[in-house]
Amino acid sequence: MSDPISTASFLGLSGALLGVGLFGILTRRNFILLLISIEIAINAAVLNFVYFAAFSSTAASGLNGQAAAVVLVGLAATEIAVGLAIVLALSRLRGSINVAEATSLRL
Amino acid sequence: MSPEGLAFLALGAVAVGTALAALLVRELVHTIIWIATFFVALAGIYFLLEASFLGILQLGVYAGAVTILLLFGIMVTRRRIFSREAATGLSLHSLAIALLVVVLLAAVASDLAGGSNHTTIHSYAVVDLSTTLFGPYGGWLLLLGLVMLSALSGAIYLVREGRE
Amino acid sequence: MFDPYNIFDWAFLVPLLPALAFVFVGLLGPRLKRLEYGGWLAVGFGGAAMALGVTLAAEEMLSPGTYTDQQYTWLSLPGNGSGAFPNGFSLVVGTLVDPISALMLIVVTVVGFLVLLYSIGYMHQDRGLPRYYAELSLFLAAMNGLVLSDNLLEFFLFWELVGVCSYFLIGFYYEKPSAASAAKEAFLVTRVGDILFLLGIFVYFSTYATRGAAGGWAANGFPFVQGNAPYLAGAMGGHSTTLTIAGLLILGGAAGKSAQFPLHVWLPDAMEGPTTVSALIHAATMVAAGVYLLAVASLFLGFTPTDQLAIVAIGGFTSFFAATMALVNPDIKRVIAYSTISQLGYMVLAVGAGFAMVGLYHLFTHAFFKALLFLAAGSVIHAVGTQDLFKMGGLGKPMRITGFAFLVGGLSLSGIFPFAGFWSKDDILSSVYGTLATHPLYWPFFLMALVTVFLTAYYIFRAFFLTFSGSAPRDPGLGHAHEGAWVMTGPLLVLSGLAIVAGLLPFAHGFGSLLPGAGIPPNYGSTDLLLSGASLGLAGLGIGLAYYLWGNGRVFALADSSPAQPVRRLLLRRYYMKDAYDAVGTRGVYGLARGADFVERYMIDGTVHGLERAFAGLSDRLRKIESGVVLDYAAFLVSGLLFLLLFLLVIGPWVASNGGL
Amino acid sequence: MLPTLSILLLSLLAGTVLTFLAGKAARWVALGTSMLFLLEVGALLANFTWPGVNASGVPQYGFAESYPWITLPWLHISYTVGADGISLPLILLTAILQLVTVVYSFEETRKPAAWFGLVLLTCLGCFGVFISLDILLFFLFWELVLIPMFFLIGYWGGLNRRYAALKFFVYTHVGSIVMLVALLVTAFYSHAPSFDFAGLYGPAQALGVTTQVFLFAAMLLGFGIKFPIVPFHTWLPDAHVEAPTGGSVLLAGLLLKLGGYGLIRWGLELLPTGLVHDQPLLYAVAFASIIWGSVIALAQRDLKRLVAYSSINHMGIVLLAIAVDSNLGLLAAVLLMFAHGIVSALLFMVAGSVHHTFGSRDIASIHGITPRTPVLSTMVMVGSLASLGLPALISFPAEFGALLATWDRIGYWVLIPLLLLVVTAAFYLWMMQRMLFGPMEGVPEGARDVRWPEALAMSLLVALTVLYGILPGLLTNVIIHSPVYGLP
User: Fold this and answer.
1) Number of structural domains found in chain D
2) Where are the beta strands (DSSP E) in D45-183?
3) Is the complex ipTM higher than 0.90?
4) What is the pTM for the complete model shown?
5) Is residue B101 within 8 Å of C642, Cβ to Cβ?
6) A22 touching C, CB under 8 A?
């Protein structure tokens, strides 16, 4: 590779994606959009793992990074599954999936 | 600028753009389309980084499974698929907070990375990755499997019929 | 070791017999067919105790010496060779018979038995007879135990027990609020003395335990062994201040028990109890225990000159002070009670001046004639049902024996030759007189004691004439007076006999010579004829004045305008001392307690409740944050992230640049 | 060697479980259990020999047992139990009070199985505290005591019982936590090899002066709340007033002793230097408790409150006796704890019976009860006289020893507790004057003397009061078989 992609630009990309995710988490009231925002944030993190795995100095640490990325992807998928189950239950119970209305966490 | 650099810029721009679009559009179904594109763009970046296994995983799990799941979620919770998400507009202070986080993060990262550039992209054989996963990470992988299993049963419990 | 053929080893039975009577009468008394049976049971045990006590005393007189018999180690602590009690110590409870305890033994068992007998008649209508006899038996047990104690701690133990018996007996008629109040007052005032006494014991004890390397006391507590005084002074080695303080503390204890100024207030009020109780406890025995303590302490522990002056001052002043209050009192029992305080003052005076044996001599004679006076008064009260002298009168004819007994008691109290009181009182005055040359500071107290002779004769004959002279009671409402049964007159006659001869009993006059050893001045009571004549003259003057004012049914009334009226009121109000004590005790201490209670409820607990409210309020406010809205939680999450980043960026480097944590 | 103490613990545990399950027969099971336990404790006392101090100066224990429990590289926690002259009198007290409490409340009708079970459980906890020689075991039993007592007050208590139960729980729990922290810091700061007493002994004593001073002060606070010391005492009157009689008996008789015992076992023995340097603080706290308890008792109208405040006064004397740090002082402290256990139990029973009989405990409105209830009045008198320190009754030798030891250490300061003895006498005598004597007043028509279980329980305590008052040597000869002997 003659023209490597700079670390700064990569971090900028993943930072930007995290920002988008956070923005979604803070503003969206629709549960599904909330889930999507979380996914964006997680993907930003995975991207970091993959990038640093690609440029790591030793093969072992690079493989570690990729392995973490695999685990993360698995966890994120699980989270989506549970999240959607909650969406379903919520809509069945309340007829709405507006998270601002689900306040039963309060004592 | 090398073709890889150009490709990275293009894919990065697509990723940020589609992510934003997914959150800002009014139709929920459009959101799904945008987010699917986002996942694909990320997969492209992974290929670019020669992490082909992860790229395929990204395509299969996210662009495929997660997208379909989200679509199903929308279908069963909405009477009409093309219903408008109650627009919440663009909350300025939320945006500011998010930007602040990004800026601070960038500052921290620049502190850590020191702006140094690497020269070579390592590519790893899938065999090595699987050896790593099932070797030192075997326990964690098992744990992940357990988490997935319990999440699955939890999900089934949550959506089972007759539960009021 | 216990030797069954040695009579002194059986001394423990003297207190034990009445104690058994207490148990039997207390448990069985109320269940017996007739309440008197319990009384007779107590009389029987009391009689046995008297027989043994008198036998012991006789044995002691025949072969003088100190007989100790230690039965039981009460409390022991092994020594570990260092620290405060290197030898450890063991507190022993045992019996000790020596001449002075033999003397006391006679007084306590004889008067005790006579009073028990007399009570059969005096108390026969009372529902609480079993309780009365149980308590009286317990008192006798404790008093005998006190007399036979072989160390200070055991002494204190019984000292407290007689105090509590006195408490119950003063409050015998507990339905009467005044009796309940008097009982409490007696207990509390003597308790003040007891506290001082206890501290005195501590001072002696620890001084010994720390310094007494030779074992002796350190190992055995406080045996009343002769000749300890020099040892003690040596052990305290130049600690004459400590010795003085210890002596003053002992004096404090004695003053409480023997009702000496300023702790005398309880004794007149103690007359709320049955008259028999007054005769036994508040005249002959318990109140004399204070004098006994002082005598024992002066013989075996030793007093410094400062202590002696204090004791002389208290004794002399009290004798005069109490006599003045007796001058005007209208209550026959209270007159005798003040006289008791006054006579106890004499004894204290003698002991303080260094003549312990003289003080004990007076204690001995006083026990008989004062018990006699009380029992005679009891006979009168039993017959007419009042204690008010101004309602009585003319009782001499229907109650000849009682009148005779009272007369004998009065003459003895006044110190008329050859009654018992003459010898002992004369001994006190002359022996103190003998010290005046070397101790000029004793002068005022000697003069007070001398004037008291006149006052004593006057007030006791005032009571005598008011009661017995004249033709008929002044209050016609009084019932027909008649003499009591033999159980009442018998003891009166026996005591009359004793009141006449007690001073002459061969061992009594000069029995100090029976107690050889250190601590007893070789020459006491040099009979000074001039002084004897003076005191006889004063007494005669007092009797004459009493006859002039009150004899033959006369009643002397002070004019309302008389300048003596305020003095009379002052004396009737007992110099306002009881009022002052009440004000301090009731209003002062109780007010303090109420104040403290207020602080407790509203400040200490208030602080606690305030804290509770503050935390409850805080948590009320904090829980509002828990809105339950997921988005809010997300916002917290992001804030946490922000904080973390800020920390990494700002605070971390700042700390690092300032040299780390 | 038989695991004696474990057998006792298990037999008591079995009895407690059976009582909970026994339903209507619970009272008989409880009676049997407590009688058996008393017999066992009697046998324990009869067979007790003290092994003394080992070669490295660590005190040993009779009936010692030790089994490893949790073993980590840096932490050895064990089930270690044992008894010596300090704990045995208190174990005896536990057995006695358990029996008399069961007898006294023999006719309890509200959920009897739970009542008797909780009573036994409280005693089980106390027994555990007195035999534990390992920090964790000690703390477990210590906390175990709180729970049944919380329910005893909270369910069977008076009108304001929930407030009182909560106050009791919060106060003592705060104390427990401070105590636990102090104990753990002692263990970790000294790098002790294990949590048991023998492992802690040497390292803890070797701690620096400053550390010991702070640790001992923390223990004073932790154990002191149980004592209770002024100003952390206000839970006690409230808890007593609201507690049922049996609860009060256990509370005053046993729970307060846990504080004293803990301070001796873990404070005085492990941190002697800390004790010596904390003496001014200890004296101040003890004097404050003595004065405050006594003076406030004078202003009380409620008989139970009065007795509760007198408890504060007496436990102040116990603290004083511990503070003087001498063999006599410690002997007196243990003796006084035993004495106070018996006497306060008697007095709280008396107060309970007064309440049952007259429907009120108000000293100011009940007068002259003696003719109507002679037995109860006698008990009031004996209890009061014992509490005010009359010779030939149990408190006297203890108070005498405590005050003599105090005099020996700090001289004329002893006048403070001595003078307060007068105040103590004053409030008891005043109470007796108003309640027992004078014309009868405020006595309901049907008021009858105490019922037999109550009379029996109180008579037992009176007998013990007299027995140990006349023969205190029975106890002191046990107490000296302990580190008491070695103190300066």
Assistant:
1) 1
2) 62-72, 75-83
3) no
4) 0.81
5) yes
6) yes
